[in-house]
Specification:
Elements lengths: L7 H22 L5 H8 L3 H4 L1 H20 L5 H20 L4 H29 L5 H30 L1 H22 L11 H8 L2 H21 L2 H6 L6 H50 L1 H35 L3 H29 L2 H20 L13
Helix pairs in contact: 1-6, 1-7, 1-8, 4-6, 4-14, 5-6, 5-8, 6-7, 6-14, 7-8, 7-12, 7-13, 10-13, 10-14, 10-15, 12-13, 12-15, 13-14
InterPro entries: MFS, MFS_dom, MFS_Efflux_Transporters, MFS_trans_sf
Membrane topology: Multi-pass membrane protein
Protein name: MFS transporter
Length: 395
């Protein structure tokens, strides 16, 4: 975009994309707050029910890479609208599933659209706003990801508690359809771009700075979802926490994430690495405390930990994506596609590792291992110099 200022229409479009991100990630993560109910309904253990998160995430990996190569030339508005309608169909079918395999099949449909949507969405903000506003636009768009990661799950849990897990999937289907309508009416006409080739992927994967960011992303996202996938069973196991307060606790987690996203948006263009390192240190400390002090923390201590965790992870998710876009330049699409693939693969891996640890040990151990992995991710980021385009004095 050549203009150095944006209009209100541009920011409405950016906000619509943020709502779209909220919807797709809520679709992916909604089962996290419903695992106990889903497992009970179909007669499967919680660890097996968690696989509906894993399968979805891993299929989204393949869809993201496929779309970057094959679908990138398509005009953005009709493509994104079509993908949101497929997501609506997926959640609607999931709400009516009578068997666990049928539920898994419905999730596969959604995962295909999810990966394609997310691979495309990473570069659209940069097409709408000038370079010096890309950080803010990315914060708004991927604020939807953060909001869904921290707010979509508690909302799904609340709906599931009040009216069953099928009602939660029905609500997600309705939201997906609504977002499709909003995107159709608000998104500007944006052309596709040249498809991503092997050479572009190779340039990104041969860049040691990208490799460092990707490695940190894999460690942090795996550790986060290793713990967060099983947050509802973890809270339910605490003697001071009754089932009726789980949804409010998760909402506190989500509210902190939304607040942190606002703060992050105002800081990230100049202080990106500093924001990331502080947020990662906070997240690792919280995971360690949840693993070692669950017996003595009580309701209020657990509430505080969830607020700190929600705020920290929201800043981390926006920070990683913004750093990728600032580094990528003309390779924004392949870099974003690889990032999305790694992100979703890490979600699935985290859920699987959590299930393995849960079957062999317990919930506290899941959080302890997640804390260690987050520390390793923090160390990886600390070793990389500040992002391109960020003043050295700010980092």
């Amino acid at each position: 975009m050549s203009a150095q200022k944006t209009t209100w229409r541009d920011w409405v479009a950016v906000t619509a994309l943020g709502v779209g991100c909220f919807t797709i990630v809520t679709t992916e993560l909604a089962p996290i707050g419903l695992l106990s109910n889903i497992g009970s309904d179909f007669g499967v253990p919680t660890s097996q029910a968690g696989l509906i998160v894993t399968l979805y995430a891993w299929i989204a990996v393949a869809a993201a890479l496929f779309s970057a190569v094959v679908l990138s030339r398509m005009p953005r508005r009709p493509l994104l609208v079509a993908l949101m309608l497929i997501l609506a169909l997926s959640s609607g079918v999931a709400a009516m599933a009578e068997t666990f395999p049928a539920l898994m099949g419905a999730r596969v449909i959604g995962a295909l659209a999810h990966g394609a949507f997310w691979a495309m969405i990473g570069t659209i903000g940069a097409q709408i706003v000038p370079p010096h506003r890309v950080g803010l636009a990315t914060s708004i768009i991927f604020g939807g990801v953060s909001a869904a990661s921290v707010l979509g799950v508690p909302l799904a849990n609340l709906i599931g508690t009040l009216d069953g897990w099928r009602a939660a999937f029905t609500a997600v289907a309705a939201l997906s359809f609504g977002v499709a309508a909003v995107c159709f009416t608000t998104l500007p006409k944006l052309p596709g771009v040249e498809g991503v080739g092997v050479a572009a992927m190779g340039r990104v994967l041969s860049n040691p700075r990208f490799l460092g960011i990707f490695a940190a992303t894999a460690l942090v996202v795996t550790s986060h979802f290793m713990a967060f996938t099983y947050i509802e069973p973890y809270l339910a196991a605490q003697s001071d926490i009754t089932p009726s307060v789980i949804a409010p606790l998760l909402l506190a987690f989500g509210g902190a994430g939304l607040a942190a996203n606002v703060v992050t948006g105002s800081l990230i263009d100049c202080w990106l690495k500093s924001v990331l390192v502080v947020a990662l240190c906070l997240a690792s400390a919280v995971l360690w405390l949840l693993s070692t002090m669950s017996d003595v923390m009580g309701l209020w201590g657990t509430t505080l930990m969830l607020i700190l965790w929600g705020g920290a992870i929201a800043a981390v998710l926006v920070g990683f994506q913004t750093w990728i876009l600032k580094e990528a330049g003309d390779d924004a699409l392949p870099a974003s596609a690889i990032y999305v693939a790694i992100f979703n693969a890490a979600i699935g891996l985290g859920a699987v590792l959590g299930a393995i640890v849960l079957s062999m040990s317990g919930l506290d151990e899941i959080f302890l291992i997640a804390a260690v992995a987050t520390v390793l991710g923090t160390a990886t980021i600390a070793l990389i110099s500040g992002p391109a385009g960020v003043p050295a004095s700010a980092e």
